[in-house]
Amino acid sequence: MDKAVERLSGLQSNRENIRNICVLAHVDHGKTTLSDGLIAHNGFISQKLAGKLRFMDFLDDEQRRGITMKSAAISLLYTPKVAVGGGEGPPQPLLINLIDSPGHVDFCSEVSTAARLSDGGLVVVDVVEGICVQTHAVLRQAWEERLKPCLIFNKLDRLIIEMGYSPVEAYERMRNLLHEVNGVMSAFVSEKFISQADTLLATAEAHSGEGGGGGGDGGAG
């Protein structure tokens, strides 16, 4: 454990190999469980406790209520299979600052802060619950902060155990969810384009009105 901490501390001196990643999702879609799994992979907790310990929920209220209320961060080590940027030589390890953010709408300010600090985001979606209200909110937040999102489908076992889906039905369900997420992101782009077009038209009309008014005054004089 001490050696791992020392190694992570040493990596903080190289800013090029540091990535801030936040975990975004609707409440109860599995953000903290995913974080537990990544932390266990680094050896900080046992694999058997991943998903049960809720390591990032450090407040008593969070443990008692079973929801994340405050964003929490932890530094993890990741060694890619190829060098970052396609460079030559052995790949260098990356320091991942993982930020677990709340999913409840009452704590949206914590999500905004986490997204603003991050380079990318893990957007977790429960494949049974699908795209929920807060999923839309975190996708918008990721888009506004220009994060590079990575979509993660979670709780795939529910499709089989609870829904009784066949492999083909499960595939279709996930494909439809992917199309829905892409549609949401596309809507944000269209919304910005329309807003910019409206602004340009309003500005052009204002200038046109000023020019017309000036011409009328000159004629009267």
Question: Can you give a write-up of this model?
Answer:
There is one protein chain. By secondary structure, the chain is an alpha/beta fold. It has helices spanning 2-11, 31-41, 60-65, 108-117, 133-144, 157-161, 167-220; strands at residues 18-25, 72-78, 94-100, 120-126, 148-154. α5 (133-144) links the parallel β4 (120-126) and β5.
Topology:
Elements: H1 2-11, E1 18-25, H2 31-41, H3 60-65, E2 72-78, E3 94-100, H4 108-117, E4 120-126, H5 133-144, E5 148-154, H6 157-161, H7 167-220
Parallel strand pairs: 1-3, 1-4, 4-5
Antiparallel strand pairs: 2-3
Helix pairs in contact: 5-7
List segments where confidence is low: pLDDT < 50 over at least 5 consecutive residues: none
Strand order of the largest sheet: 2-3-1-4-5
Structural class: alpha/beta
- What portion of residues belong to β-strands? 15-25%
- C-alpha Rg (nearest Å): 23 Å
**Helix content percent band:** 40-55%
Number of strands: 5
Short précis:
This protein has 221 residues and is α/β, with parallel strands linked by helices.
Features:
221 residues, alpha/beta, 5-stranded mixed β-sheet, 7 helices, globular
